Amino acid sequence: MPATPAWPPQSTPRLFLDQELAPGMLRIDGPPAHYLVSVMRMKAGDPVKLFDDRTGEWLALARDTGKRDLTVEITERLREREAVPDLWLCAAPIKKGRIDWVAEKACELGAARLAPVLTRRTVVDRLNLERLRSHMIEAAEQCGRTAVPELIEPVKLPALLRDWPVDRTLFFADETGGEPAAHAMRSRRGPAAILVGPEGGFDEDERAAIRALPQSVGIGLGPRILRAETAAAAAMALWMGVAGDWGPNGTD
Question: What residue ranges define each of the domains in the chain, with the CATH number in brackets?
Fold first, then answer.
């Protein structure tokens, strides 16, 4: 006897909508409608998975499609919004393309927040936050996340340190050397953040100011020199492996 096909199929498109979702009819227009109708060629009765970063992931069925919009019926909730590991990525802006990659990987790796940090050696002084958020949304759609990382306005390093929460550990990638990252992260559980500098690294005064913060811990990321974007991804992956939701106990 043949197995019953999975429903909805694994190939069902996923789409983020920035509005609270609930069972019932919903009209979709603009770029999301273009994607579903013109790119995915959705027809009446076809399924789509929708998520809103609020209530979780929902199954919807196309009921009426036009050239520039479509109407779907949201029928059931597939998953609640995920429990997001309490990890922030604080990263100095780097060149276009590379910072987009950092935003994408921050989402894929499970970060709760992306905070651009302006340092003395930062070469990028203007960021297109809308573009960065779009990259994170696309990553969430593709990797199955039901939450999109919070993206905050760029902040100067002194202001970041001045307002740092007393209960959040700040692991900063110290190119001059620090405690082995995995050991540091395993021994300091709870809310955390990773701070990564620009292509030229932190200058001496900045490094001294970071070290003076009681919650800061300098970490080393191995014997090789890493690009800023590689350091960000490596540190996030290590934290998720030893303190985040990659282990057998999830975020415990």
Answer: 14-79 (2.40.240.20), 87-242 (3.40.1280.10)
